[in-house]
Specification:
The longest helix is centred in the last third of the chain and has 25 residues. The protein is globular, with a radius of gyration of 35 Å. By secondary structure, it is of the alpha/beta class. The protein has 10 helices and 20 strands.
Length: 537
């Protein structure tokens, strides 16, 4: 395979998961459709029909065929050469391809090391009857404009990555896609800072090993990366038993990353938990199995009501109809609701909604055990098994108000985080304004004239930018609020002086010089005397 022409390193590209419809959160989605769909009606160099919600326009600047039926594309912001947005290795983006009939959504892993100065790198494998994968393979070229979401996903490296940490990575087929981004990031670290890593990787044949050439060259001396490849064409089988038989105490104390079919990742997670691996150290990706744009599923899927159902939305009080085998997300959108979503394939978990009453199927493997216990389900793949009640349906249609006292919708950020963010922003703006005021010469011009003139006059009780000290009876110098030069020096008398903002040291009446709060450059300084209490100073 060739190197990535847009990266600082040598990076062969990755195909998608052959024979699978999608990956889990952060994984690569190939998008198998049940019926032979028509390729998206997009034209080279032109934006799609309409801008989907929460999507930004991106531009393809290059493509590379890296294997039979596999193409890699490199994506930037229009008019730029860097990534459309920063990301972490292991995250994914969702592409939206609007067509005259519907909008197709597909999620793909970001294969790079997380360098925002480099283009996004996505790799797509042609899938039989796959609308999006065939379009990418046949039609997408340099100059093609698409729509993409911001990067998301939690299948990422630990934040405290350091030498001495152990990482074990398990991948089947193109499940290596997000893992490869992590390995590339580790390879760019200083040798004395790299953690140790093990890679268990299953492929069909040697030619099907994704990133094979780059993996061979990444660490040939196995100083930090040990690789074990399993080829099904030779009778090798990657199983939890084969992996865990090699696990030692160091690896069991480290982090585990698994990306592959649901059965493998679920069994591995259960076995690791039984062996004492911390739950926070187990990171699993699954191959989701939702077809097309997550609108209406085939009846042969075996889940969902064949007679339709009613969906009650608690926070608006509305009751909506769901067609037979229709997903919750599709039903809500058909009625004008706007729930959150991203991949539309049960992979990212952003479309989760809480079911208060009734049953849905499937719930979704991307949810945690706590979320499942709380009644959440992934609306993009879940279908009602009968009448159900949802806590919320997302943003309601225009003119539909939420019922007072209804359960609050799940926000992308907790309310406390939103409040804290707003307070932090207000404080930041206030500090910026205060700093700008202090750095700006906002003194009136008359002050400068007073400082350089022979006399100065200000309203009684006001502060002047520069004034001299006046001796009080007894010889103790004291600052004064006003200055009225009479050409002579000497001691003070008259009214009691008021404090001033600045004072210039000046011998007066034999006393010690007054301290200077703000020194002034050498200049003729008038002799200060107290302003009579009867005059207007």
């Amino acid at each position: 395979m060739g190197n990535n022409p847009y990266s600082r390193g040598s990076q062969p590209e990755t195909p998608s998961r052959g024979g699978q419809t999608s990956s889990g959160r952060g994984g690569l989605l190939t998008g198998r459709m049940r019926a032979a769909p028509r390729p998206p009606a997009l034209t080279q160099g032109a934006l799609p029909v309409a801008a989907p919600t929460n999507m930004l326009p991106v531009r393809v600047i290059g493509r590379r065929e890296v294997a039979p039926d596999v193409v890699s594309v490199y994506i930037v912001l229009p008019g730029a050469q860097q990534a459309p947005a920063p990301y972490l290795p292991g995250q994914f983006v969702t592409l939206a391809l609007p067509t005259p009939r519907e909008t197709l959504y597909r999620s793909y892993s970001l294969c790079g090391a997380g360098d925002p100065s480099e283009p996004w790198e996505l790799t797509i494998k042609r899938v039989d009857q796959g609308a999006v994968s065939n379009y990418f393979y046949d039609k997408v070229v340099a100059g093609t404009l698409l729509y993409a979401s911001l990067p998301r996903g939690v299948f990422t490296l630990p934040g405290n990555l350091h030498a001495g940490m152990a990482l074990t990575m398990v991948a089947i087929g193109s499940g290596v896609t997000p893992i490869m981004g992590m390995l590339r990031a580790i390879a760019r670290m200083r040798p004395d800072e790299r953690p140790s890593a093990q890679l268990y990787y299953a492929s069909r044949t040697p030619e099907d090993i994704i990133f094979g050439e780059e993996l061979r060259m990444m660490d040939p001396r196995e100083q930090w990366l040990v690789q074990r490849h399993y080829l099904s064409s030779r009778g090798d089988r990657l199983s939890p038993d084969a992996i865990l038989a090699r696990a030692d105490n160091e690896s069991l104390r480290g982090h585990w990353y698994m990306c592959g079919p649901t059965a493998l990742t679920r069994e591995m997670a259960e076995r690791l938990a039984q062996m004492g691996v911390k739950e926070s150290h187990i990171h699993a990706e699954v191959f989701a199995t939702a077809p097309g744009p997550a609108y209406k599923l085939d009846a042969e899927s075996g889940s969902g009501s064949s007679d339709g159902a009613r969906i009650t939305v608690a926070d608006t009080g509305a009751t909506l109809d769901a067609q037979p085998q229709e997903t919750i997300l599709a039903a809500l959108e058909r009625h004008g609701y706007h729930p959150e979503f991203s991949c539309r394939a049960g992979a990212c978990g952003s479309c989760k909604l809480r079911v208060l009453q009734g049953q849905v199927s499937p719930v979704g493997e991307a949810l945690s055990a706590a979320e499942k216990s709380a009644g959440y389900a992934l609306s993009c793949i879940a279908r009602p098994m009968g009448d159900i009640t949802l806590a919320t349906g997302g943003r309601p249609p225009k003119g539909v108000a939420r019922v007072a006292g209804a359960p609050a919708p799940v926000a992308s950020r907790p309310p406390q985080a939103v409040t804290l963010l707003r307070l932090t922003a207000i404080m930041g703006v206030g500090a910026l304004l205060a700093g700008t005021w202090n750095l700006t010469n906002h003194r009136p011009d008359v002050w400068s004239q007073q400082a350089s003139g022979a006399t100065s006059s200000t309203p009684a009780g006001s502060l002047t930018p520069s004034s001299a000290a006046t001796s009080q009876p007894g010889g103790a110098p004291a600052p004064t609020a006003t200055v009225n030069s009479s050409g002579g020096g000497g001691g003070g008398g008259g009214g009691a002086p008021a404090p001033t903002a600045t004072a210039t040291p000046k011998p007066s009446g034999g006393g010690a010089p007054a301290p200077t709060a703000t020194p002034k450059p050498p200049a003729p300084t008038p002799t200060a005397t107290s302003c009579p209490s009867t005059s207007k100073c």
